[in-house]
Amino acid sequence: MACVVLYFTGYGLPAAPDVNSAPPEVDVAGAASTLMEIVRETKDPDAKWRAVRALGYLRYQGAIPLFLECLKADHHYVRANAARALGDMRVNAAASSLIELLKSEQDGGVIEQASRALVHLRAREAVPALKPLANHQSPQTRSWVLQAIGTLGSRSDVPFLAERLSAPGMSEQEIAARGIENLAKVDFQFPKRGGPYNPEPAIKRAKDWWEKNKTAFRPE
User: Fold this and answer.
1) What's residue 22's pLDDT?
2) Are 104 and 76 a contacting pair, CB within 8 Å?
3) Residue 68: strand, helix, or coil
4) pLDDT for position 1
5) What's residue 11's pLDDT?
6) CB 40 within 8 A of CB 66
7) How far apart are CA 87 and CA 92, in angstroms?
8) Considering just the CA atoms, what is the radius of gyration of the chain in Å?
9) Which helix (DSSP H) or strand (DSSP E) does residue 5 occupy?
10) What's the Cα-to-Cα distance from 55 to each of 12, 65, 87, rounded to whole Å?
11) pLDDT-derived band of residue 210, with 50, 70 and 90 as boundaries?
12) Distance CA 117, CA 87 (A)
Protein backbone atom coordinates (compact mmCIF):
# COMPACT_ATOMS: atom_id res chain seq x y z
CA MET A 1 0.00 0.00 0.00
CA ALA A 2 1.31 3.43 -0.91
CA CYS A 3 2.07 5.78 1.94
CA VAL A 4 0.27 9.12 1.77
CA VAL A 5 1.05 12.07 4.04
CA LEU A 6 -1.37 14.98 3.72
CA TYR A 7 -1.13 18.41 5.31
CA PHE A 8 -4.19 20.65 5.42
CA THR A 9 -4.80 24.15 6.66
CA GLY A 10 -7.62 24.98 9.04
CA TYR A 11 -9.82 25.55 6.01
CA GLY A 12 -9.30 22.06 4.66
CA LEU A 13 -7.07 23.17 1.80
CA PRO A 14 -3.65 21.64 1.14
CA ALA A 15 -0.97 23.57 2.99
CA ALA A 16 1.50 25.56 0.90
CA PRO A 17 4.85 23.78 0.52
CA ASP A 18 8.05 25.25 1.89
CA VAL A 19 9.48 27.44 -0.87
CA ASN A 20 12.98 26.19 -0.02
CA SER A 21 12.11 22.53 -0.38
CA ALA A 22 12.32 20.51 -3.57
CA PRO A 23 9.02 19.64 -5.26
CA PRO A 24 7.81 16.32 -3.85
CA GLU A 25 7.63 13.32 -6.13
CA VAL A 26 4.09 12.02 -6.01
CA ASP A 27 2.90 8.61 -7.12
CA VAL A 28 -0.54 9.86 -8.13
CA ALA A 29 -2.02 6.45 -8.86
CA GLY A 30 -0.69 5.00 -5.63
CA ALA A 31 -1.77 7.98 -3.54
CA ALA A 32 -5.21 7.95 -5.12
CA SER A 33 -5.62 4.24 -4.45
CA THR A 34 -4.84 4.75 -0.78
CA LEU A 35 -7.14 7.77 -0.53
CA MET A 36 -10.02 5.90 -2.15
CA GLU A 37 -9.53 3.06 0.32
CA ILE A 38 -9.70 5.57 3.18
CA VAL A 39 -12.93 7.05 1.82
CA ARG A 40 -14.53 3.61 1.48
CA GLU A 41 -13.42 2.12 4.78
CA THR A 42 -12.91 4.80 7.42
CA LYS A 43 -15.57 5.52 10.02
CA ASP A 44 -13.94 8.85 10.85
CA PRO A 45 -15.84 11.62 9.00
CA ASP A 46 -12.88 14.01 9.21
CA ALA A 47 -10.56 11.46 7.60
CA LYS A 48 -13.17 10.75 4.93
CA TRP A 49 -13.78 14.34 3.84
CA ARG A 50 -10.08 15.15 3.88
CA ALA A 51 -9.41 12.14 1.65
CA VAL A 52 -12.19 13.25 -0.71
CA ARG A 53 -10.67 16.74 -0.81
CA ALA A 54 -7.23 15.30 -1.57
CA LEU A 55 -8.60 13.14 -4.39
CA GLY A 56 -10.23 16.21 -5.89
CA TYR A 57 -6.96 18.10 -5.54
CA LEU A 58 -5.24 15.32 -7.50
CA ARG A 59 -7.94 15.51 -10.22
CA TYR A 60 -7.95 11.73 -10.26
CA GLN A 61 -10.42 10.57 -12.90
CA GLY A 62 -10.75 7.12 -11.41
CA ALA A 63 -12.34 8.65 -8.31
CA ILE A 64 -15.33 10.11 -10.17
CA PRO A 65 -17.71 7.21 -9.36
CA LEU A 66 -16.65 7.49 -5.72
CA PHE A 67 -17.36 11.24 -5.71
CA LEU A 68 -20.84 10.55 -7.03
CA GLU A 69 -21.40 8.05 -4.21
CA CYS A 70 -20.16 10.61 -1.70
CA LEU A 71 -22.90 13.06 -2.70
CA LYS A 72 -25.14 10.78 -0.60
CA ALA A 73 -22.78 10.58 2.38
CA ASP A 74 -24.06 11.27 5.89
CA HIS A 75 -21.48 13.94 6.69
CA HIS A 76 -21.97 17.34 5.08
CA TYR A 77 -18.24 17.97 4.64
CA VAL A 78 -17.99 14.78 2.58
CA ARG A 79 -20.91 15.82 0.38
CA ALA A 80 -19.54 19.36 -0.04
CA ASN A 81 -16.05 18.22 -1.03
CA ALA A 82 -17.40 15.62 -3.44
CA ALA A 83 -19.51 18.30 -5.13
CA ARG A 84 -16.52 20.62 -5.29
CA ALA A 85 -14.34 17.92 -6.86
CA LEU A 86 -16.91 17.10 -9.53
CA GLY A 87 -17.13 20.75 -10.47
CA ASP A 88 -13.40 21.37 -10.43
CA MET A 89 -12.89 18.33 -12.66
CA ARG A 90 -15.65 19.49 -15.03
CA VAL A 91 -17.53 16.18 -14.82
CA ASN A 92 -20.48 17.15 -17.00
CA ALA A 93 -22.22 13.84 -16.40
CA ALA A 94 -22.48 14.76 -12.69
CA ALA A 95 -24.91 17.64 -13.30
CA SER A 96 -28.04 15.53 -12.82
CA SER A 97 -26.70 14.08 -9.55
CA LEU A 98 -25.81 17.53 -8.23
CA ILE A 99 -29.28 18.80 -9.11
CA GLU A 100 -30.88 15.86 -7.27
CA LEU A 101 -28.68 16.67 -4.27
CA LEU A 102 -29.96 20.25 -4.22
CA LYS A 103 -33.58 19.12 -4.14
CA SER A 104 -33.16 17.74 -0.62
CA GLU A 105 -30.01 19.41 0.72
CA GLN A 106 -30.29 21.71 3.75
CA ASP A 107 -26.67 22.34 4.69
CA GLY A 108 -25.47 25.71 3.44
CA GLY A 109 -21.92 24.64 2.72
CA VAL A 110 -23.05 21.73 0.56
CA ILE A 111 -25.48 23.95 -1.34
CA GLU A 112 -22.72 26.48 -1.97
CA GLN A 113 -20.28 23.91 -3.34
CA ALA A 114 -22.96 22.21 -5.44
CA SER A 115 -24.07 25.54 -6.93
CA ARG A 116 -20.43 26.41 -7.67
CA ALA A 117 -19.95 23.05 -9.35
CA LEU A 118 -23.05 23.50 -11.50
CA VAL A 119 -21.74 26.88 -12.65
CA HIS A 120 -18.47 25.22 -13.66
CA LEU A 121 -20.51 22.63 -15.58
CA ARG A 122 -22.67 25.33 -17.18
CA ALA A 123 -25.71 23.32 -16.15
CA ARG A 124 -28.51 25.72 -17.06
CA GLU A 125 -31.04 23.04 -16.24
CA ALA A 126 -30.14 23.52 -12.56
CA VAL A 127 -31.91 26.88 -12.23
CA PRO A 128 -35.31 25.48 -11.11
CA ALA A 129 -33.60 23.52 -8.32
CA LEU A 130 -31.55 26.55 -7.28
CA LYS A 131 -34.42 29.02 -6.96
CA PRO A 132 -36.01 27.61 -3.76
CA LEU A 133 -32.59 27.73 -2.11
CA ALA A 134 -32.38 31.50 -2.58
CA ASN A 135 -34.45 31.64 0.63
CA HIS A 136 -31.93 29.69 2.69
CA GLN A 137 -31.38 30.95 6.24
CA SER A 138 -27.69 31.65 5.59
CA PRO A 139 -26.96 35.00 3.86
CA GLN A 140 -23.78 33.55 2.40
CA THR A 141 -25.62 30.58 0.93
CA ARG A 142 -28.29 32.85 -0.52
CA SER A 143 -25.55 34.91 -2.17
CA TRP A 144 -23.90 31.86 -3.74
CA VAL A 145 -27.25 30.63 -5.05
CA LEU A 146 -28.19 34.02 -6.51
CA GLN A 147 -24.81 34.25 -8.20
CA ALA A 148 -25.35 30.83 -9.76
CA ILE A 149 -28.80 31.81 -11.02
CA GLY A 150 -27.41 35.05 -12.42
CA THR A 151 -24.82 33.03 -14.31
CA LEU A 152 -26.87 30.05 -15.45
CA GLY A 153 -30.29 31.65 -15.92
CA SER A 154 -31.97 33.31 -18.87
CA ARG A 155 -33.90 36.49 -19.53
CA SER A 156 -37.00 34.83 -18.05
CA ASP A 157 -35.22 34.66 -14.66
CA VAL A 158 -34.72 38.43 -14.46
CA PRO A 159 -37.96 39.00 -12.45
CA PHE A 160 -36.80 36.44 -9.89
CA LEU A 161 -33.55 38.32 -9.38
CA ALA A 162 -35.34 41.67 -9.40
CA GLU A 163 -37.27 40.59 -6.30
CA ARG A 164 -33.90 40.35 -4.52
CA LEU A 165 -33.06 43.97 -5.26
CA SER A 166 -34.94 44.69 -2.04
CA ALA A 167 -33.20 42.00 0.03
CA PRO A 168 -32.13 43.05 3.56
CA GLY A 169 -28.43 42.70 2.78
CA MET A 170 -26.64 44.96 0.30
CA SER A 171 -24.46 42.04 -0.79
CA GLU A 172 -27.51 40.12 -1.99
CA GLN A 173 -28.84 43.22 -3.71
CA GLU A 174 -25.56 43.67 -5.55
CA ILE A 175 -25.38 40.01 -6.63
CA ALA A 176 -28.97 40.21 -7.88
CA ALA A 177 -28.19 43.39 -9.81
CA ARG A 178 -25.10 41.86 -11.37
CA GLY A 179 -27.13 38.81 -12.34
CA ILE A 180 -29.69 41.03 -14.04
CA GLU A 181 -26.87 42.76 -15.88
CA ASN A 182 -25.72 39.43 -17.24
CA LEU A 183 -29.13 38.01 -18.16
CA ALA A 184 -30.71 41.19 -19.53
CA LYS A 185 -27.52 42.47 -21.17
CA VAL A 186 -27.60 45.86 -19.44
CA ASP A 187 -24.95 47.88 -17.60
CA PHE A 188 -25.56 49.38 -14.17
CA GLN A 189 -22.02 50.76 -14.09
CA PHE A 190 -20.52 48.70 -11.32
CA PRO A 191 -16.78 49.39 -11.07
CA LYS A 192 -14.80 47.35 -13.57
CA ARG A 193 -11.63 47.28 -11.47
CA GLY A 194 -10.88 45.83 -8.07
CA GLY A 195 -10.52 47.75 -4.83
CA PRO A 196 -12.96 49.28 -2.37
CA TYR A 197 -16.10 50.83 -3.82
CA ASN A 198 -19.65 51.76 -2.90
CA PRO A 199 -22.18 49.54 -4.72
CA GLU A 200 -25.22 51.65 -3.77
CA PRO A 201 -25.29 53.90 -6.87
CA ALA A 202 -25.21 50.91 -9.22
CA ILE A 203 -27.85 49.08 -7.18
CA LYS A 204 -30.07 52.17 -7.37
CA ARG A 205 -29.63 52.25 -11.14
CA ALA A 206 -30.66 48.60 -11.22
CA LYS A 207 -33.80 49.36 -9.21
CA ASP A 208 -34.67 52.33 -11.41
CA TRP A 209 -34.11 50.25 -14.54
CA TRP A 210 -36.39 47.52 -13.25
CA GLU A 211 -39.20 49.96 -12.47
CA LYS A 212 -39.03 51.26 -16.03
CA ASN A 213 -38.69 47.88 -17.74
CA LYS A 214 -40.50 45.29 -15.65
CA THR A 215 -43.59 45.28 -17.88
CA ALA A 216 -41.41 43.89 -20.66
CA PHE A 217 -40.74 40.81 -18.52
CA ARG A 218 -44.34 39.89 -17.73
CA PRO A 219 -45.31 36.37 -18.83
CA GLU A 220 -47.22 36.38 -22.09
Assistant:
1) 54
2) no
3) helix
4) 41
5) 40
6) yes
7) 8
8) 20
9) none
10) 13, 12, 13
11) very high
12) 4
